[in-house]
Write a structure and sequence with these properties.
The complex is a heterodimer. Chain A is elongated, with a radius of gyration of 28 Å. In chain A, strands 1, 2, 3, 4 and 5 form a five-stranded mixed β-sheet that branches. In chain A, helix 2 runs antiparallel to helix 4. The termini of chain A are far apart. Chain A is 33% helix and 27% strand. Chain A is built from four helices and five strands, in the order H-H-H-H-E-E-E-E-E. Chain B is α+β, with helices and mostly antiparallel strands. Chain B has two domains: 148 residues, no CATH class; 130 residues, no CATH class. In chain B, the strands form four sheets. In chain B, strands 4, 5, 6, 7, 18 and 19 form a six-stranded mixed β-sheet that branches. A six-stranded mixed β-sheet of chain B has the order 9-10-16-12-13-14, with helices on one face. The relative contact order of chain B is 0.16. Classes of the chains: A alpha+beta, B alpha+beta. Chains A and B meet through helix 1, helix 2 and helix 4 of A and helix 1 and strand 7 of B.
Chain lengths: 180, 326
């Protein structure tokens, strides 16, 4: 029998199935492979973070403001470095229960004496120590504190030998956010 | 017979299947991504409108005059305007109540015109929008709008949302006119002035009652003046409807809140957290009706209270929500 020019059915069907499988996988994953979606989610989360810090950055006469919280951090407090309750309540009201957060501050510690000042020490402090997920976003805001309003037990108090400093303290408040 | 040079049937079938699938994919794939592209462009539009409204005071121009006070000129002849709700360019997120109300009126008056001014209607595109001010805990599936003291919505402008294919962008904002949002409840015991709808005079004391849904969003007392001889303020908390009688006043120069005393001074007290904590201790659950009875003696005070808006760092705070769809 001459088998030439006859269809090899099994190979043909396998090839067609393979193509259909690839097609199906492509359709199923088309939204996942689009990176722009996650970027849009990040943009909304970041905007909420920036707005939150902006709303809280008010006069220190309000107990739930960012400045009040920073001025009242006290190294002798048993709960240090946890922020005051009013601040946490307002922060969590703004972020709502669907967003988790971690709160950090960093600043330049001034050391030295009457003739020499060093600004080389970047200090970091984690105020709320939650562990972020890999897709977390970070926002920050710079807050200027008046040196003269700080108490000796404040973590931001300059470490100078018998010298009073008039340098303002610039604190970077970092809020790391992720959705749950 | 010589079979060389003939086209194999296998190849014809293979090429046919391949071409068929390839043409099908080529035709179908762009329509799959069209949805994604469309929603991404919607998100950009929603972001743009949210930024314009939250961060810009807006602008108006009639050819000879212009300025940022569009809220006073939007309905004049030959005026073009760009709506913006910010109090000023230096205060992003700080919204002007007057501009909010003008925006609501302008959208109600001519939705299409405002759409053009916001850049949502161009020769190439036409988007629908809805802009509202919602509570901080409002969700897309459970929308809670902020209400003025008279019960009207503060802002709910644009078309009703009838589609699931839309983009939503939120900004956290605060609003400048606390009295429009919470009502002006001023009590001056020495002058005998108080809002008669919610307060009564009882001897030299003024007794008021406020009904809420737990948890309370805002309860601020601004003490303006202490009178002699015994300035006092007491708050009694009830779950359900208000208990009979007035809240008994305690010792002078103190604020008494259901067993907790705070020194009474001429300043503002944000009592929301303390009141909610007390209600929680009394067994209140989310959504319960609760009542706060207030008694005042020898004081001039202002009360700011709201069922919807939150009071954060000295300002009424809410969410500006922009939804855009095609």
């Amino acid at each position: 029998m001459n088998n030439k020019a006859q269809a090899l059915t099994l190979e043909g069907v396998t090839a067609a199935l393979l193509l259909l499988l690839v097609l199906y996988t492509l359709f199923q994953s088309s939204l996942v492979i689009s990176p722009v979606w996650s970027e849009l989610g990040d943009a909304q989360l970041k905007q909420i973070g920036y707005d939150t810090l902006r709303v809280l950055d008010r006069d220190e006469s309000y107990n739930d403001s960012l400045k009040y919280m920073l001025y009242h951090l006290n190294k002798t407090d048993p709960e240090y470095p946890k922020p005051n309750e009013e601040f946490i309540n307002s922060l969590e009201t703004l972020l709502t229960s669907s967003i988790r957060y971690r709160l950090e501050v960093s600043w330049t510690n001034i050391t030295g004496n009457s003739t020499l000042r060093n600004f080389n020490f970047i200090e970091n402090l984690v105020l709320i120590n939650n562990t972020p997920t890999p897709d977390a976003v970070m926002v920050s805001r710079l807050v200027v504190l008046d040196n003269r309003s700080l108490t000796p037990s404040s973590p931001f108090m300059p470490n100078l030998d018998n010298v009073t400093s008039s340098y303002p303290i610039v604190v970077e408040v970092r809020l790391i956010l992720w959705a749950v | 017979m010589d079979d060389n040079g003939r086209l194999s049937l296998d190849m014809i079938i293979g090429v046919s299947i391949f071409l068929f699938v390839f043409i099908y994919v080529a035709q179908f794939l762009p329509s799959v991504f069209a949805d994604v592209r469309s929603e991404i462009s919607l998100a950009h539009e929603a972001y743009k409108v949210a930024v314009i409204l939250a961060e810009d005071p807006g602008r108006w121009d009639n050819g000879s005059m212009n300025g940022t006070g569009w809220e006073n000129h939007w309905n004049e002849l030959n005026v073009v305007f760009r709506p913006g709700l910010a109090y000023s360019r230096d205060h992003p997120n700080y919204l002007s109540y007057e501009k909010i109300k003008a925006f609501q009126d302008a959208v109600d008056d001519n939705y299409t015109k405002v759409k053009e001014y916001l850049g949502l209607k161009t020769p190439d595109s036409d988007y629908e929008f809805n802009v509202s001010i919602q509570t901080l805990d409002s969700k897309p599936y459970r929308k809670t709008l902020i209400q003025d003291w008279d019960g009207n919505y503060t802002l709910n402008a644009g078309r009703a949302i009838v589609t699931t294919q839309m983009a939503r962008f939120e900004r956290i904002v605060w609003i400048d006119d606390i009295e429009e949002l919470t009502g002006n409840i001023t009590i001056d015991t020495d002058k005998g002035s108080y809002p008669t709808t919610i307060c009564t005079l009882s001897g030299s004391d003024v007794d008021c009652r406020f009904n809420y849904i737990y948890p309370v969003n805002m309860f601020v007392i601004d003490v303006l003046q202490l009178y002699t001889p015994s300035p006092t303020l007491s708050l009694c908390l009830d779950i359900g409807s208000c208990a009979a009688g007035s809240c008994s006043l305690g010792g002078p120069n103190l604020i008494h809140i259901d067993g907790t005393d705070i020194n009474l001074e001429e300043r503002e007290y944000n009592l929301k957290d303390l009141i909610n904590q007390k209600f929680k201790e009394l067994g209140a659950k989310n959504g319960d009706n609760v009542c706060i009875r207030v008694s005042v003696r020898d004081l001039k005070v202002k009360l700011y209270q709201s069922d919807t808006i939150d009071y954060i760092a000295g300002n009424p705070t809410a969410k500006l929500v922009v939804v855009v769809w095609q």
